[in-house]
Amino acid sequence: MTKTALITGATSGIGKATAEMFADHGINLVICGRRQERLDELRNQLSEKVKVHTLSFDVRDKKDVFAKLENLPQDFSVIDILVNNAGNAHGLAPIQDGDVDDWDAMIDINVKGLLYVSKAIIDQMKERKSGHIINIGSIAGKDVYPNGNVYNASKFAVNALNEAMRYDLNEFGIRVGAVHPGLVHTEFSEVRFKGDSEKAENVYKGYTPLYAEDIADIIYFMVSRKGSVNIADLVVYPTAQASATILNKKV
Ligand code: NDP
Ligand code: 8X3
């Protein structure tokens, strides 16, 4: 039977690549993000292959998240796969110099936003006793690194919530798993460094990083296992990276 996936943060990077990968495999899509024009572009690109619905909301806007996700059009009302991907780092500074607005953004988007979206979708999965939730964590949620502080904390929370969801939703037959990528070349660093492209590009210089397609490939692998198999927790680095702090810039 044709499945439907809802992907947050589908306007760029990992979320967009996952939408493309899913479309290649015949999975219908609800693609979400704040930038409607990018959602429209992606829908135009993919709708020859699968059915695509776009939803523009800020995951921080609790009311709007619930209003939109609880009123999905009939063709998209059954969500088989939820990919909780929307998120970013905002800033990279020692805790004593951190910007409280950046802290709010990371906690509100990466943690609370993920919770709101999950809550809005879990009810229907619980009723059907089936569904698959993929949470995009980070190696930043496994290891703290200097200046990562609040981003680390937000991704440690995603790691904890991934486990917590797996425990609590187990009785409903809902699969829950996380991917924790290392450095992936997306718009992530552009956002972290507030549009400073030179600084952002430097992050990926001198070695081969992961690309969004690499993570999409892994996400598709996870969702395409038979229903009795749940890949619970998957850490993936570029070969050049051994940990959050060890990176071989010659690889
Ligand atoms: P991108 O910046 O390319 O994509 C981030 C996506 O999140 C965009 O589609 C953006 O859409 C969406 N988003 C951000 N803020 C909000 C918001 N307030 N409301 C709704 N959507 C939002 O980065 P990545 O693809 O790299 O990031 C995707 C996920 O992967 C994140 O959770 C990130 O933490 C994680 N990750 C990234 C790594 C990397 O090195 N790149 C490594 C490990 C994890 P829009 O702006 O249109 O709203
Ligand atoms: C993104 C990877 O190492 O920049 O989560 O935190 S890192």
From TrEMBL:
InterPro entries: NAD(P)-bd_dom_sf (IPR036291), Sc_DH/Rdtase_CS (IPR020904), SDR_fam (IPR002347). PROSITE patterns: ADH_SHORT. It comes from the Bacteria. Keywords: Oxidoreductase. Transmembrane segments: none annotated. It holds the Pfam family adh_short. GO terms for molecular function: oxidoreductase activity, acting on the CH-OH group of donors, NAD or NADP as acceptor. Belongs to the short-chain dehydrogenases/reductases (SDR) family. This is SDR family NAD(P)-dependent oxidoreductase. The lineage of its organism: Bacteria, Pseudomonadati, Bacteroidota, Cytophagia, Cytophagales.
